[in-house]
Amino acid sequence: MLRFTLLLASLILFAGPAAAQTSTAIALTDSGSGQSSAVAAAPIVYHAADEMPGFPGGDAAFAKFLRAKIQYPAEALNNGISGKVHISFVVDEAGHILDPKVVKGLGFGLDEEALRLVRIMPWWNPGKIQGQPVRVAYTLPIVFRALE
User: Fold this and answer.
1) CATH number at residue 52
2) What is one Pfam family matched by this protein (predicted)?
């Protein structure tokens, strides 16, 4: 530990005063017990998994959920707007939906409605790698059809 501290101190000295002003400070602590305090790393988010996350009950349950909960915006209906809104989010290890956002939208209130639907969805079945639940990024297309 002392060797590492001396090496770090010598690197800071040789970096020069200008570099020292712009670099971030590193604090090293030694509790005397031989244990180092670790900074919590951000969890890994996978883009593919052995078992991808899914809506509980599958596609049929997802379609039923949409039919029951959708509120087609009046602005979109008045303008006859139909299409897909793509929403991206992360499904965590417990199946929670985190950070939903519109990737490709249609406007006319449909983007906001798609986000609302994603936010009120039940917890999903989490993605798994080697049988262990993991965080997985997911993009979901939500189809809107204006019936005339």
Assistant:
1) 3.30.2420
2) TonB_C
- Centre a 10 Å sphere on the Cβ of residue 133 and count the other Cβ atoms it contains: 18
Residue 120 scores a pLDDT above 70 = yes
| Residue 77 lies in domain | 45-144
Residue 85 lies in a domain: yes
Q: What is the pTM of this model?
A: 0.70
pLDDT tens-place string over residues 58-96: 999 999 999 999 999 999 999 999 999 999 999 999 999
CA distance 105 to 79: 16
C-alpha atoms less than 13 angstroms from C-alpha of 94 in its C-beta half-sphere: 4
What sign results for the dihedral spanned by CA atoms 40, 42, 46, 52? Answer: positive
Beta carbons of 37 and 31 less than 8 angstroms apart: yes
